[in-house]
Amino acid sequence: MSVVLGKPEVPKHWLLDANVIFSEWTRWLMVALAERHNATLYWTPHIESECYRNLLRLGRLHPQDADIERTELPARLNATLLPQVHEPYLADVRQVDEKDRHVAASALALRHKVQQPVALLTWNLRDFPRKPLLKLGLVRLCPDELCLELAKTTLEIQATLLRTVELMQAGLASHPPQTPTIYQTKAMPLPQSDHEWGAFLARNRMHKTARRLTRPN
Q1: Whole-prediction pTM value?
Q2: Angle formed at CA 188 by CA 47 and CA 122, multiple of 5 degrees
Q3: Per-residue pLDDT for 56 more than 70?
Q4: Of 33, 10, 7, 8, nearest to 20 (Cα)?
Q5: 3-class DSSP state for residue 90?
Q6: What pLDDT shows up at residue 5?
Q7: What is the pLDDT of residues 98-130, one digit of tens each?
Q8: Is 150 helix (H, G, I), strand (E, B) or coil?
Q9: Cα angle at 155 between 150 and 161, to 5 degrees?
Q10: Mean pLDDT in residue range 20-28
Q11: Which stretches within 6-100 are classed as H helix?
């Protein structure tokens, strides 16, 4: 007989996967949501290395800017860079895809450290089976799901998006790139209206949030 696991509350400790901190906008969305929920953000050196390796490979950042940004990012996002102590927990997360197992093991290490449930935030939901992780005290969510859990109404979503833009603009103003890449110089301006935000969110895999924002009242 299978065990039915109820819908868990969103924890106060969030481990971010590399694909979440990859995007400048998604980073600041996580900060805005963490402020709303009084949560703390975390990642590990391994996760950070994976993120910046891909940013450089895809030409999103100049190597010099990547070095500077990587050093400053935890403080800028009010996050904690955890020690790389995941190996003892790898055997407990065997059902996670092998290439992502270090992420789940790091989340489990954090779970034991804080003695509270931990949210594992990733876009790769299929690589992190929900039920086995939930039994370990790990709540697997993507940013879209997290946003809907913490900003349930149109007004709350609008406030969260406004706060994300404020944080992102302040961050870019205080830490502008020294050698902008083509990607950075051609970046589109952030949306202004709910309709524009709906299209922007959908392009950034935030489909459920986009539907809730733009649905008729």
Answers
A1: 0.94
A2: 25
A3: yes
A4: 33
A5: helix
A6: 62
A7: 999 999 999 999 999 999 999 999 999 999 999
A8: helix
A9: 70
A10: 97
A11: 18-21, 24-37, 45-57, 63-76
Cα dihedral 58/40/99/141 (nearest 10): -100
Give dist(CA 214, CA 217) in Å, integer: 9
Listed as own residue / partner, the contacts of 168-175 with beta carbons closer than 8 Å and 24 or more positions apart are 168/24, 168/25, 168/28, 171/28, 171/76, 172/24, 175/68, 175/69, 175/72, 175/76
Complete edge-to-edge strand list for the sheet that includes strand 79-81: 79-81, 40-43, 13-16, 118-121, 138-141
| H or E stretch at 40 | strand 40-43
> Residue 94's pLDDT is what?
96
Residues with Cβ within 8 Å of 47's Cβ and at least 6 positions away in sequence, in order, are 16, 17, 18, 21, 102, 103, 106
Q: The tokens of 71 are what?
A: 């050093």
Whole-angstrom distance, CA of residue 48 vs CA of residue 122: 14
